[in-house]
Design goal:
Elements: E1 4-8, H1 15-26, E2 29-32, H2 33-40, H3 46-57, H4 63-76, E3 82-85, H5 91-103, E4 108-115, H6 118-126, E5 128-131, E6 137-139, E7 159-160, H7 167-181, H8 183-190, E8 194-198, H9 203-214
Parallel strand pairs: 1-3, 1-4, 2-3, 4-8
Antiparallel strand pairs: 5-6, 5-7
Bound molecules: adenosine monophosphate.
């Protein structure tokens, strides 16, 4: 059995940043439904167009689509433990994940809730840019793209901003989080799997908190 964790928290809590670090340092596998859907939306199919519209509005994509994506990746990406990043986001998804883990003879080591102030989320997200090559996250105020225009991690000169990182979509994404995803905090607390950490600190400080939970 391997170590599997869920990173739970609102948009901008730092789930992707911490997931990538765990991939690099522990050889775990990041399963980000947001990344999978961003790939799906580029396909010129009816499903791709529908997903793009829903994402740009900041709403949740239907459970059956994301559960299908996770199921597919759990079949083919099995390695040294999964980091579920941005999944589950509803109780139905949480139930589906429990079934899938059982099917693979796996269990969750922990559900890490990354707690961040709402005002900070707005700042993190509306000023966010990521490296197109390695996904390193920059912020116009707190961690600007280096003046030589090269990513600190991989040296790439290409950066992108997400279509849904604007104030209007963000407001909807936060509403969806509080309406549909935050009940999972109670659900995993009651299951005895919830670990709360402060997601406000520097990347290394947050990483240390997560490491404490995992070790
Ligand atoms: P993220 O990159 O995790 O912030 O996700 C970006 C967008 O993808 C969300 O605002 C949703 O529209 C969609 N999405 C990602 N993960 C899920 C999920 N587990 N369930 C439903 N929609 C999702």
């Amino acid at each position: 059995m391997t170590t599997n964790i869920i990173l739970l928290g609102p948009p901008g809590a730092g789930k992707g940043t911490q997931a990538r670090r765990l991939v690099d340092e522990r050889g775990m596998t990041q399963l980000s439904t947001g990344d999978m859907l961003r790939e799906a939306r580029t396909s010129d199919t009816e499903m791709g167009h529908r997903v793009a519209e829903v994402m740009d509005r900041g709403e949740l994509v239907t459970d059956d689509i994301v559960i299908g994506l996770i199921e597919e990746h759990m079949e083919k990406d099995r390695t040294n433990g999964f980091i579920f990043d941005g999944f589950p986001r509803t109780l139905a998804q949480a139930d589906a994940l429990a079934r899938l883990l059982e099917k693979h003879g796996e269990r969750l080591a922990a559900v890490v809730e990354m707690q961040v102030d709402d005002d900070v989320l707005v700042k993190r997200i509306t000023l966010r840019a990521t490296c197109a090559e390695c996904g390193a996250v920059y912020n116009d105020e707190m961690r600007p793209i280096p003046s030589d225009g090269k990513c600190e991690t991989c040296g790439s000169t290409e950066f992108k901003r997400r279509e849904d990182d604007n104030e209007e979509s963000l407001k909807q994404r936060l509403l969806e989080y509080y309406k549909k995803t935050s009940p999972l905090i109670g659900y995993y607390y009651a299951n005895g799997q919830l670990k709360r950490i402060d997601g406000l600190g520097e990347i290394d400080e947050v990483a240390e908190e997560i490491d404490k939970v995992l070790d």
